[in-house]
Design a protein that fits this description.
Helix 4 links the parallel strand 7 and strand 8. 38% of the residues lie in helices and 17% in strands. The protein is globular. The strands form four sheets. Strands 9, 10, 11, 12, 13 and 14 form a six-stranded mixed β-sheet that branches. A four-stranded mixed β-sheet has the order 1-8-7-2. It has a two-stranded parallel sheet with strand order 3-4. The protein has 291 residues and is of the alpha/beta class.
Length: 291
């Protein structure tokens, strides 16, 4: 099983929130309203739901998740887990647009097209992708003015943090812990992107992969000063999986573990996809990097 399929399987089982992506794309576009003259928008991820809510777009379908969704969606229909939305439920809503993260992949895009479901796939793998998504959704739903306000607010807060002028000389290892599995998060992942923005040095880079298998020989060789750990959906089980890994003698060789420089990142701020809590996440990350 390749890396992407393995991660998608893990996230599907634990009802997590999203994976890696490329540029935003749209498929099977239709009119703004359906045959009943109504606009029916479905969001298949928590981050997308929050962005649409912030823009003032009414959402009729939301993902099934343990995370708290905006109050405006309390009467919305649940359409299945973010990594495996239920097409039958979605079709029953007669949507005018289903907004999904592009990490659902071409298979879902094909299924949406084959089922005549108007869909739009957005990129939430980086902070720049988040901003692009806000702009694109603003244009799509005639909320460009509100989108511009959100972008300006994010960028003003980002400038206030002043992280762009800082540089951390320590080597950082980012791990993604899920029940039964631990993987390395590269600079191509969302949290990896945050570390880069905050001036941190992620010891694993990749042009194409957001997550890679743990290679202990390489990790020991690079010997990180700090370890950041992402956990999702079932954090206690994920944390247990990481702790079981760390109990092995090979991990005990690392300076980060010897010096107790291991940090479990808060789920609500450090997810698999970029979200509107990005500034708070950068602030918290700054505290860890520059403590």
């Amino acid at each position: 099983m390749n890396i992407k399929k393995k991660i998608i399987t893990l996230l599907s089982v634990t009802m997590l929130t999203f994976m890696v992506g490329c540029s935003s794309s749209e498929s099977n576009e239709s009119n703004v309203t359906n045959s009943n003259g109504e606009e029916v928008v479905v969001a298949t991820s928590v981050a997308v739901t929050e962005i649409l809510d912030k823009l003032g777009v009414e959402v009729s379908g939301v993902p099934t998740t343990s995370y708290e969704l905006p109050k405006s969606t309390k009467d919305a229909t649940e359409v299945g887990s973010p990594m495996n939305p239920d097409l039958e439920i979605i079709k029953s809503l007669n949507p005018t647009c289903v907004v999904s993260v592009d990490t659902l992949g071409s298979d879902f895009e094909k299924q949406f097209t084959e089922n005549n479901i108007p869909s739009m796939f957005v990129n939430l793998s980086t902070v720049d992708g988040l901003k692009e998504t806000i702009v694109n959704l603003g244009e799509k739903f005639d909320k460009s003015e509100k989108a511009a306000e959100i972008i300006a607010e994010l960028e003003n807060k980002e400038n206030e943090l002043n992280l762009s002028k800082k540089e951390n000389k320590e080597d950082i290892l980012i791990l993604f812990g899920a029940p039964g599995s631990v993987m390395v998060s590269t600079d191509n992942s969302y949290v990896g992107n945050l570390v880069k923005i905050a001036g941190g040095n992620n010891i694993f880079e990749s042009e194409s992969s957001s997550f890679i298998q743990v290679n202990m020989e390489e990790i020991i060789k690079r010997n990180p000063d700090k370890i950041l750990i992402m956990t999702h959906a079932v954090p206690e089980e994920a944390k247990k999986a990481v702790e079981e890994e760390f109990a092995k003698a090979t991990w005990q060789q690392l300076d980060a573990i010897k010096n107790n420089k291991v940090y479990y990142l808060e789920n609500g701020y450090f997810g698999m996809s970029a979200n509107l809590k990005v500034i708070e996440a950068l602030d918290k990350l700054g505290e860890i990097l520059y403590e």
